[in-house]
């Protein structure tokens, strides 16, 4: 096994290696080790936070240079939000409380902990609107005036939301927790989930269920904003101002018609179907549940198909919509970003405008709670997704914080939510360990002239032009058949670049000479596999950066690598396409 880099000029070959990560497409089994480019580090325990499970040393996986500590202990910690006064508020539905964490002068020191609100009915979602706090409880959303360390009397925004106490539900409500967000125009959005795994009656219920609702700031004009949302959890607004939600999809799905073991509930199929969803919502959008499911399969035979998670099209639900009469799945807008099945995504936060390093601020974080009935179990993690400004969507999933699941499938913690702090760190809640972690990135390089600082938006053209010149020079050859290769780039001094790519390989008999645009109709003996690659690199003072992308083309009949490069922050600027039959890749 050899390692080769793309042939470059002598000057470019002297580039200094920078932080690089790579993530392969999730396979049918949950990986328990750190992803490529990540490392296992001790979890630091702040003074006074060392009770179980931290009475035993714990390690977590983080990208190179990141550190993590137990910052505070909050039993059942779920959703979090910062107040204008700089306090972190954390909900605990089981205890009926909202906890206030007041940071010390030293950001790494444990904060002062107090109860801000008590006696609530399963409080979950939290949002700040100016000087007020919105709290989503089991049947209502209330607005509390914030006055430093206390609150004033609440004003109802929405009441009468459904839960197990609703007479028509007879005590049956599987997804009672509500989330809340406030839009740029101060419209309030609330998630109201389904009563069960597949309960079509939710779609026409009053008050609405399996939906995201919208209401005016004063509580008037309650309306259904999106439907077919089985269990929407996190709500957050992207850099364009569009609302997204993280959705927990259904369980125990049957194999669709026309595929092996059609109509049967097969654990191997259930393990990866249907995907969870990160969806951009628009007024009236239907996410398909329970009649249509986002399908991650690349080819028609699920037993051999590779999986993908970008722009997922829908497939009929064999148990609820076998003949397609309930809903035309082909008419639905594809899901923008899938997450591997049974991951249980909860909190969702776009990092736009945060003080994280630029390459990380250009993305979103999602709390992955981990599966409850998958075999093997899907591990909890804090996932990061890069923002693709050119396509107005999220890119491939990257593990930002992991290591909560042991080799036997047991867990000592489960991530729920994450929010960026004013100190440039991420604050992560864990309802199983009863903790809030402080996740600290490596120091961000200073932004050079002409390049925007984190949160300030892309520089006008200058960074993209510098990257283009280097990429044209870097395309003198193609990678060989070794197990790894790298890309060396010349850009602006200390410029951050995000690289995303997909390597498609065809192996076996009867494969075509080149990878076709669609691999859905390959011959039976030709197998397709897809590896998704991701890297974030920072150029040195001379503008040199290098990323090593692990992948293999050994034994492939043909292959194609598509690699997109964008400055961070900034839109996608270039795409390189390498194929087995050309020494000079196409530049788009």
Which properties best describe this structure?
Neuraminidase, disordered C terminus, 41 strands, five-stranded mixed sheet, mainly beta, five-stranded antiparallel sheet, 588 residues
Strand content: 35-45%
Arithmetic mean pLDDT: 81
The CATH topology name of the domain at 57-363 reads Neuraminidase
> What's the overall geometry?
globular
Estimated structural class: mainly beta
Main sheet makeup: 5 strands, mixed
For the record, what CATH class of the domain at 57-363 applies? Mainly Beta
**Percent in helix:** under 10%
Distance between the termini: 31 Å
Question: Count the helices. How many?
Answer: 3
Descriptive overview:
This protein has a domain at about 55-365: Neuraminidase (6 Propeller). Helix content is about 5%, strand content about 35%. It has 3 helices and 41 strands. A hairpin with a 7-residue loop joins β17 and β18. It starts with a strand and ends with a strand. The model is unreliable at about 1-35, about 445-485, about 570-575 and about 580-588 (pLDDT under 50).
List the helices and strands and how they pair.
Blueprint: E1 3-5, E2 39-42, E3 44-45, E4 59-62, E5 67-73, E6 80-82, E7 88-92, E8 97-102, E9 112-117, E10 126-129, E11 132-136, E12 141-147, E13 150-151, E14 155-158, E15 180-182, E16 188-192, E17 211-215, E18 223-227, E19 232-237, E20 243-247, H1 267-270, E21 276-281, E22 285-286, E23 292-294, E24 310-312, E25 314-316, E26 335-339, E27 345-350, H2 358-361, E28 363-368, E29 381-388, E30 393-394, E31 398-401, E32 415-420, E33 426-430, E34 435-440, H3 462-473, E35 484-490, E36 496-508, E37 526-538, E38 544-550, E39 558-568, E40 574-579, E41 586-587
Parallel strand pairs: 1-35, 3-5, 18-22
Antiparallel strand pairs: 2-4, 5-34, 6-7, 7-8, 8-9, 10-11, 11-12, 12-13, 12-14, 15-16, 16-17, 17-18, 19-20, 20-21, 21-26, 23-25, 24-26, 27-28, 28-29, 29-30, 29-31, 32-33, 33-34, 35-38, 36-37, 36-39, 39-40, 40-41
């Amino acid at each position: 096994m050899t390692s080769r880099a793309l042939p470059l000029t002598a000057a470019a070959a002297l580039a200094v290696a920078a932080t690089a990560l790579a993530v392969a497409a999730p396979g049918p089994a949950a990986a328990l080790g750190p992803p490529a480019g990540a490392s296992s580090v001790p979890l630091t325990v702040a003074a006074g936070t060392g009770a179980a499970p931290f009475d035993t040393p714990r390690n977590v996986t983080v990208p190179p240079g990141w550190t993590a500590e137990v910052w505070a202990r909050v039993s059942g910690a779920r959703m979090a939000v910062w107040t204008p006064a700089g306090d972190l508020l954390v909900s605990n539905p089981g205890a009926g409380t909202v906890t206030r964490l007041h940071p010390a002068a030293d950001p790494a020191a444990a904060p002062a902990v107090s109860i801000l609100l008590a006696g609530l009915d399963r409080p979950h979602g939290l949002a700040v609107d100016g000087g007020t706090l919105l709290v989503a409880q089991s049947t209502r959303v209330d607005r509390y005036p914030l006055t430093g360390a206390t609150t004033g009397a609440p004003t109802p925004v929405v009441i009468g939301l459904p839960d197990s106490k609703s007479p028509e539900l007879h005590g049956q409500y599987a997804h009672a927790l509500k989330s809340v967000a406030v839009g740029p125009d101060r419209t309030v959005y609330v998630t109201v989930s389904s009563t069960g795994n597949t309960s079509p009656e939710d779609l026409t219920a009053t008050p609405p269920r399996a939906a995201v609702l919208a209401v005016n700031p004063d509580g008037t004009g309650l309306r259904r904003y999106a439907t077919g949302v089985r269990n929407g959890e996190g709500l957050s607004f992207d850099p364009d101002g569009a609302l997204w939600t993280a959705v927990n999809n259904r369980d125990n799905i049957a194999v669709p018609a026309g595929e092996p073991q059609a109509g049967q509930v097969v654990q191997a199929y259930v393990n990866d179907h249907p995907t969870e969803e990160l969806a951009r919502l628009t007024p009236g959008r239907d996410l398909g549940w329970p009649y249509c499911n986002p399908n991650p399969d690349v080819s028609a035979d699920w037993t051999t198909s590779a999986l993908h998670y970008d722009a997922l099209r829908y497939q009929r639900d064999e148990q609820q919509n076998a003949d397609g009469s309930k809903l035309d799945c082909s008419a639905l807008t594809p899901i923008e970003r899938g997450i591997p099945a049974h991951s249980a995504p909860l909190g969702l936060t776009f990092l736009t405008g945060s003080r994280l390093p630029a390459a990380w601020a250009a993305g979103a974080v999602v709390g992955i709670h981990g599966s409850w009935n998958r075999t093997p179990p899907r591990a909890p993690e804090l996932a990061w997704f890069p923002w693709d400004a050119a396509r107005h969507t999220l890119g491939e999933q990257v593990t930002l914080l992991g290591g909560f699941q042991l080799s036997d499938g047991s867990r000592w913690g489960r991530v729920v939510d994450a929010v960026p702090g004013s100190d440039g760190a991420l604050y992560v809640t864990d309802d199983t360990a009863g903790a809030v972690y402080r996740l600290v990135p490596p120091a961000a390089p200073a932004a050079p002239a002409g390049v925007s600082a984190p949160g300030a938006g892309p520089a006008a053209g200058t960074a993209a032009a510098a990257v283009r010149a280097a990429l044209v020079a870097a395309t003198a050859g193609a990678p060989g058949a070794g197990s790894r290769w790298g890309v060396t780039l010349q850009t602006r001094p200390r410029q951050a670049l995000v690289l995303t790519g997909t390597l498609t390989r065809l192996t076996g008999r009867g494969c075509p000479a080149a990878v076709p645009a669609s691999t859905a109709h390959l011959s039976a003996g030709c197998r397709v596999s897809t590896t998704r690659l991701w890297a974030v690199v920072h150029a040195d003072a001379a503008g040199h950066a290098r990323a090593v992308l692990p992948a293999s083309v050994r034994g492939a009949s043909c292959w194609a690598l598509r690699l997109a490069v964008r400055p961070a922050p900034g839109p996608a600027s270039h795409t390189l396409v390498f194929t087995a039959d050309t020494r000079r890749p196409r530049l788009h």
